[in-house]
# Entry
Amino acid sequence: MGQLILQGYIGEKNKFVYMKHFILIIALHLITSNILAQETSGQMEIDLKDLLKKKIDYEKFKGNILLRDSVLTTYRDKIDQIKNNKKTFSRYINAELKQKSRDEKQNMIEYRHLSITESNSNLRQSLINRKDFYKIVKYYLFCNNDTILPKDFRGLSIIDEKDYNGYNIKNRPLWALAVKYLSTHLTLTVNQKKFIKDEINQKHVLEMKAYIDENGNKTDTIEFIMWALEYWATQPKPSLYHLDNVYDALRFQQYSPKEKN
# Structure
């Protein structure tokens, strides 16, 4: 009888030890999984930052005959790496999009290359909200399967541009000066004059003036501005930055594919 009680005690003790080990193993597994998940998320954030860096490098050096092919290859290799891990990056991006926004300043990142002229006065034109950048990656790389990201985020259908370049009453003096400049230096139709004098089109007017300041009052620059005005006559929402992407197809129609890159 005593032996049976002893065996029962030992059996219960073994069960208790087993349960302790089991619980410890589960706890260690959860801790390890959490650490690995954090490391994976951290690496994906690093990879997405690196993607932006390679995009900007490509835009910076695509006019350099010696470097343009190598920077484009590096850029596309990074995109392929991310596409090959689509499920993992999609889970990370979806989780990030559900998170509350970080501090506004910390949440803004550089999206496109700025020329020397722009960098002196137009830095904010290149900054994008981190979540909007993730939306672009998700839509253009995973849904559209594009080979590179859009040059600029402004004017894209998935981006609410009012968050970046809405009407600002403080810009009225600059807008008035820009209207005067465009009216003097461009041969405008009655409707085009009406368009630039309508204050609701303030951002377009300021963008045109900035574009001319950056690129010079050259024939191809003016041709693009006039084309944009015609485009806005029927579709007023896209920004000049978006139309600059669209116009590339016309701008480079005389070039070979290699020269476009």
Summary: The first strand starts at residue 108 and ends at 110. Strands lie at 108-110, 127-129. Confidence is low (pLDDT under 50) at residues 28-39, 254-261.
